[in-house]
């Protein structure tokens, strides 16, 4: 999967410390580590949330969408479209 390989370039210790909330500072740190690519940041956040929850599997589309929602909410932006995110995620994976 190309996206998981790409997102691991930015991987290190999880930025988040809690599964309950995402702060603005954490959201900006994920975006910074993904060089501004919102979808890659969401994928990394979803992966880190899984790791903190004890799940070593790659995140699925719903988990990435939820992470994208959290990133946007922390920055005061509108919720993302699930259908649009799925299309963008599939394009990113195919690249």
Write a concise keyword list for the protein shown above:
disordered N terminus; about 100 residues; mainly alpha
DSSP helix fraction: 55-70%
Order of helices and strands: HHHHH
- According to DSSP, the number of beta strands is 0
What's the assembly state of these chains?
single chain
Low-pLDDT ranges:
1-10
Q: How many domain regions?
A: 1
Calculate the mean pLDDT score and round it: 83
Radius of gyration: 12 Å
Summarize the biggest pleated sheet: none
- The fraction of residues in strands falls at under 5%
Number of helices: 5
Q: Could you say which structural class the secondary elements and strand pairing correspond to?
A: mainly alpha
* Overall shape: globular
Q: What's the N-to-C terminus distance?
A: 9 Å
Explain what this protein looks like in three dimensions.
With 95 residues, this protein is mostly helical. It has one domain. Helices cover 62% and strands 0% of the residues. It contains five helices and no strands. The protein has helices at residues 2-8, 24-33, 38-52, 61-74, 82-94. Helix 1 packs across helix 3 (38-52), helix 2 (24-33) crosses helix 4 and helix 3 (38-52) packs across helix 4 (61-74).
């Amino acid at each position: 999967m190309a996206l998981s390989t790409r997102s691991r370039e930015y991987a290190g210790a999880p930025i988040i410390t809690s599964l309950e909330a995402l702060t603005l500072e954490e959201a900006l740190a994920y975006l910074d580590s993904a060089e501004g690519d919102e979808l890659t940041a969401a994928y990394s956040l979803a992966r880190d949330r899984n790791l903190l929850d004890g799940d070593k599997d790659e995140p699925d589309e719903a988990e990435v969408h939820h992470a994208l929602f959290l990133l946007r909410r922390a920055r005061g932006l509108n919720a993302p479209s699930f259908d649009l995110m799925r299309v963008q995620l599939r394009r990113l994976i195919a690249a």
